[in-house]
Hints:
This protein is of the alpha+beta class. The protein has a single domain (about 10-150), classed as SH3 type barrels. Helices cover about 40% and strands about 25% of the residues. It has five helices and five strands; from the N terminus they run ββαβββαααα. Strands 2-1-5 form a three-stranded antiparallel beta sheet. A two-stranded antiparallel ribbon has the order 3-4. Helix 3 (about 95-110) runs antiparallel to helix 5 (about 120-150).
Amino acid sequence: MFEKTTIRHSKKRLMVRLCLNGGREVEGEVFVAPEERLVDLLNDARAFVPLETAEGEVLSVAKTAIESAQLIQEAPSEARDPYALLRIERTAPDDEIRRAWMNRLKACHPDRLAALNLDEEVVYAARKTAQRINAAYDEVMRHRRDGAAA
């Protein structure tokens, strides 16, 4: 009857570079509590670190696979290129844009990740990513509609 109300604590975004086993490097944003540091995140009890790449993809990185971590900066809050987020060319037709939007949304949909019983931080990151993907699609379509009307 009533929805459960949860208190959400604000998270701070940190831009990091993780060096993984085998020499692979990944860059992206991790989320920590305002008073936490990167080292606190890496040493807590969770087995995975949710990492959001610049393309909006959410990765669950096993802490056992991390050889080193480097703090690059606190993540910028500026908007990203909506075409890059949807992984499409600016000249793509509308039907291709819609397909790309649906595929990106399916890949990181928070309900799908919640069903896997992953950490709350991973589901939260997926929810934020899905919001950014939807906003990117809306922005692209708005620009196309406004450009066609002019």
